[in-house]
Amino acid sequence: MSLTDTISEKMSDIFKPQRKFISVLLTTVMLMHGNVSFRNMSRYSSLCEKTFSRQFGNPSDSAGFDMIGTEMSVTPHTLMIAATDCSFIPESGSHTYALGRFYNGARSEAGKGLEIPELAVADVNYNTAYSISAWQTPDPFGAGHTRTDRYVEHSVQDAPCLPPSVRYPAADGYYAENKFADGVTDAGYHLISKLRHDANLRCL
């Protein structure tokens, strides 16, 4: 039995057809070449394009799946913290969902593409991070919502999938603002970050 099957067996809300699909999906993504699309995945697997489309329409607890995989991978009683950051994906299409201008850390400037905020568990002893969940940043965000609101929602909603011993999320300077810090603090966590270059250190 593969690791994927072992994890799926521990999830009571995943039935046999979905277990089989997850196993095929993860194997195909690791082996295929080119863009990860329904049509391309059908060329490298035994499933047809319509099956991929139908299964992706079903809700699944991917964060719970990753949580179980992390628990099986880390050493018991190891020192762990949470980590969150965004990845930039260059994209020049004109009809791509959520296409916008996001910060590209490799070039230290904003660029046209997609953004994927990710929440992970970091094993401090082995300098290894295990992904828990990733949400795509929409563009536009909707009335009254900002990008920071999305980051807070992501971190708070998927925080229950973190190991119980993890109480400290680490993030870079972008997250060092009141809205994000207050959001994770209200959820019972203590943010570790560096101050932004425009931080106001005056205490009145």
Number of strands: 5
Low-confidence stretches: none
CATH class category of the largest domain: Alpha Beta
Q: Helix segment count?
A: 7
User: How would you state the average pLDDT, rounded?
Assistant: 89
Structure, briefly:
The chain has 204 residues and is of the alpha+beta class.
What report would you give on this structure?
By secondary structure, this protein is of the alpha+beta class. It folds into two domains: 1-60, no CATH class; 61-204, Transposase Inhibitor Protein From Tn5, Chain A, domain 1, CATH 3.90.350.10. It is 34% helix and 20% strand. The chain has helices at 3-9, 16-31, 38-43, 49-56, 62-73, 147-158, 178-186, and strands spanning 80-90, 100-104, 109-123, 128-134, 169-170. Strands 1, 2, 3, 4 and 5 form a five-stranded mixed β-sheet that branches. Helix 6 packs parallel to helix 7. The N and C termini lie far apart (62 Å). The model has no long low-confidence stretch (mean pLDDT 89).
